[in-house]
Design a protein that fits this description.
By secondary structure, this protein is of the alpha/beta class. It is built from 11 helices and 8 strands. It has an 8-stranded parallel β-barrel with strand order 1-2-3-4-5-6-7-8, surrounded by 7 helices.
Length: 280
């Protein structure tokens, strides 16, 4: 299982300079990839812009949106921007895409919440065609397409993985929740005659050090405030000790994941080094 780290792009108040330094340090310390979290109605740094900056500061680390709220982006614009970033990075981009679960992101962009699934399917079809034909976008580096991982836990999500994706990505789920869905995706992949193996990614929140714990809790409580009392449960569940992080790595690998993205909840550059010292 590949060990990657998130960019702290959604943490309120984080500087753009820190994101660039973070990307450079993550590559130097040997992480397999960098991932962003996407929101519109929140004071986060834009995912694709942050990854473009990271691409310019690095040479080989993978770049991933985990996830990007695909339906709120005009499909022609998303096709062009993602193909451009794929070219700029030398083919290091993976698009993790899903409809998301926050109506406010749709309200702010004027996209119909109750049509998000249909819009998502239309976008996936458009992206594939635009990349392959190359008439309105730069040609992606690998096989005229940008790799796509699909988020979500519905039957429709599995169908999208098989039709449009290179695999599946899970957000904020425990290993025992991820394992059966990983198995479903693998079975559906084989039944559909897809060659090779699907990529199976997941993310988990972390912070390291007593000095970072309060910042971690404050961020997660704020980010998930829309869930009410459940925000505290999410804030409490982050991995904050070496023992918890090592155990999670083992559990996610045993659950069949091929990629783990440990997302920072404290925007301090030392978190990259602390995590690398622990796992790499």
């Amino acid at each position: 299982m590949k060990i990657s780290i998130g960019l702290p792009n959604p943490v309120p108040g984080v500087s753009g300079r820190l994101l660039v330094d973070w990307a450079r340090r993550a590559e130097e310390r040997g992480f397999a990839g960098l991932a962003t979290i996407d929101r519109i109605a929140y004071p986060n740094h834009d995912s694709l812009t942050a990854l473009a900056a990271a691409a310019g500061a690095t040479s080989h680390i993978g770049l991933m949106t985990n996830i990007l709220l695909a339906p709120v982006y005009p499909a022609p614009l998303l096709a062009k921007v993602s193909a451009s970033l794929d070219q700029l990075s030398g083919g290091r981009l993976t698009l993790g895409l899903a409809p998301g679960g926050r109506p406010d992101d749709y309200e702010l962009t004027g996209v119909a919440w109750n049509r998000r699934g249909r819009i998502f399917d239309e976008s996936l079809a458009y992206l594939r065609t635009a990349w392959q034909e190359g008439q309105s976008v730069p040609t992606p580096v690998h096989d005229r397409r940008v790799p796509v991982l699909i988020g979500g836990t519905s039957d429709k999500a599995v169908e999208r993985v098989i039709t449009w994706g290179d695999g599946w990505t899970a957000g904020g789920a425990r290993p025992e929740q991820v394992k059966p869905f990983n198995q479903r995706v693998r079975t559906a992949w084989a039944d559909a005659g897809r060659t090779g193996e699907p990529r199976l990614a997941t993310l988990a929140y972390f912070s390291l050090g007593d000095d970072a714990e309060q910042e971690s809790r404050d961020y997660l409580s704020h980010y998930y405030a829309f869930t009410g009392d459940f925000a505290k449960i999410i804030a409490d569940s982050a991995l904050r000790t070496p023992e918890a992080i090592r155990a999670a790595v083992t559990a996610f690998e045993d659950a069949g994941c091929t990629e783990l993205y440990l997302d920072p909840t404290a925007a301090r550059l030392d978190q990259v080094d602390r995590l690398a010292d622990l796992l790499l």
